[in-house]
Amino acid sequence: MEKDILKLYTIQPIGCRVVVYFAKDITKVNEAIEGDKKIHEWYMSRNNNTKVETSQSDDGYILLSESKEYEDSPLLLAVRYSDDKDYFMEKLVHEITHLVFHLEDYHSIVDETEFRAHLSEMLYKDLRDIYRKNRTEVISKVYYKDDFLKEE
After folding, report:
1. What's the half-sphere exposure (Cβ side, CA atoms, 13 Å) at 140?
2. For residue 54, how many C-alpha atoms fall within 13 Å in the half-sphere facing its CB?
3. Per the domain annotation, does 76 fall within a domain?
4. pLDDT tens for residues 5-43?
5. Which of 10, 28, 97, 114 is the most exposed place for a label (fewest CB within 10 A)?
């Protein structure tokens, strides 16, 4: 069973923060945010005290701030867990692509293709690690010396 993950994540090269939410039911994001005082205060201060509107059919989404001060700043990245781990990772890459698009627009880095590529790579590694470190199941296979000595 996967446990829900809620983190306030700082994107280091640009100092922007986003709430990351991985869960089997991402429609429960409001309850998760309200359950963490620090994240709740940060989130509400940047989104005019507006709750997230989600759909049962969403596998993931990026939410942008609606406040005047932070208008169109990325605020939340949510991805629904899947029993198929490859599908989850594909959705994560998809949402990271949207996140980078919004970050480049908000921070005026549109013509910086190499920076965007490095940012995408860093986001994937960091968010994948957040996912892996918070999973409740074993995430790596143990290999024994004999596995490598077998002849085909």
Report:
1. 6
2. 23
3. yes
4. 999 999 988 888 999 999 998 888 889 999 999 999 988
5. 114
Distance CA 8, CA 11 (A): 10
Provide the residue range defining the domain that includes 22. 5-136
Task: Give domain status of residue 109, yes or no.
Answer: yes
132 domain residue, yes or no = yes
pLDDT tens, residue by residue, 60-84:
888 887 777 777 788 899 999 888 8
Total Cβ atoms within 10 A of residue 28? 15
pTM over 0.85: no
DSSP three-state, residue 110: coil
Domain membership flag for residue 147: no
Dist CA 113 CA 100 (whole Å):
11
Amino acid making up residue 116: R
The encoded tokens of residue 37 equal: 């005082």
